[in-house]
Amino acid sequence: MLMKAPRGTNDILPAEVPQWQLFEEKVREVCNLFGYNEIRTPIFEHTELFQRGVGEVTDIVAKEMYTFLDRGKRSLTLRPEGTASVARAYLEHKMQGEAQPIKVYYLGPMFRYDRPQAGRYRQFHQFGVEVFGTNEPTVDTEVIMLPVFFFKSLGLKEFTLEINSVGCPRCRQEYRRQLQEALKERVPKLCSDCAERYEKNPLRILDCKNEKCRELVQDVPLLTNTLCAECADHFAQVRQALDALGQDYVVNPRLVRGLDYYTKTAFEIISPALGAQSSICGGGRYDHLLATIGGPDIPGIGFALGIERVLAALEAEGVLKQEPDVPDIFVATAGVPETEALKVAMQLRAAGLRTDKDYLGRSLKAQLKFAGKKGVKYVVILGDEELKNGQATVRDMQAGSQEVVLLTELAAHLAGLIREAE
Predict the structure, then answer these.
(1) Same domain for 347 and 386?
(2) Number of other residues whose CB lies within 10 A of the CB of residue 244
(3) Pairing of strands 355-357, 329-334
């Protein structure tokens, strides 16, 4: 039986990789402009990190984590998100002792046992940023503006920024009471997940995608009306900074994030190109996460975006089309040992020229046909006479013309042709 990739995973084929590389190059370019440095954390962590950091009553921890025992009977989990791992690294390596704030970004695979659907996989990839060491409202605005700037630099045109404040533990407790009171008689009509959330985490009911649940919460009290003075002032300053930058946004008072660690600012970026699953970026402030996982009470804020989902949005808008890399030069042989072609190919590669050769023993005619199909610009033809004279024939595949060049001058000659063609 033919083996297939596990459900919810996918192969990124050579024709698709240039899009990913362009995306990743843009990530590094934009993060460098904003003063963020890359951090790389392990793909698996101790399970307790996510239980404490993400929250045991979240869907991620309760239903979606890939957890296993290693040979030492320790419980480990493939990371379902990036923030908890970066927070752990910040504490473990005593980065709070460095000049604050610490601004980092990450790229890499995450894992959740979720129902696979368009743009949503069990192994998926995220780009995210985290800032530790400041609760100044303008840093919230910077973290919101970074993905906006990033999407624009990629050429994405249609997206909407939604913002909200989810308050702090103090004012959220009052909202929790009001929300449970408003939903008390409606619990039997909620979906099974939301009925369970009613006692454990009622704010998550606002985030449910079930249409019936969305109808049932239409008239519940708004969280923004219960914010304490500190949270209300913080949210006002974030909005003022966005206004000062001329950034359009929508205040969505029902916007909550699916993880327990969020406080104050929460935001999402929505792409209409993706239909129902329209969120392409989400983030917010988490001022007590570090204390939750055993560190001091240091504030933080960040976001994450799913790379597959953003690429899907770009594809839907018809941007970020990238062709696979093609060698500029193909070395063909006509009755000479293949080692001669390999020697010439290696010399051209050493000179920085993208070069390939035949590995199937094709005839010269078949080699030229293959090079044409691949889109190679120039073919270097090696025959007995050329090698005796220390020469090679260079064929311009587009023009159909050819010339004889000394092997000692071949690399420089081809480099000049390629420069002229660019």
Answers:
(1) yes
(2) 10
(3) parallel
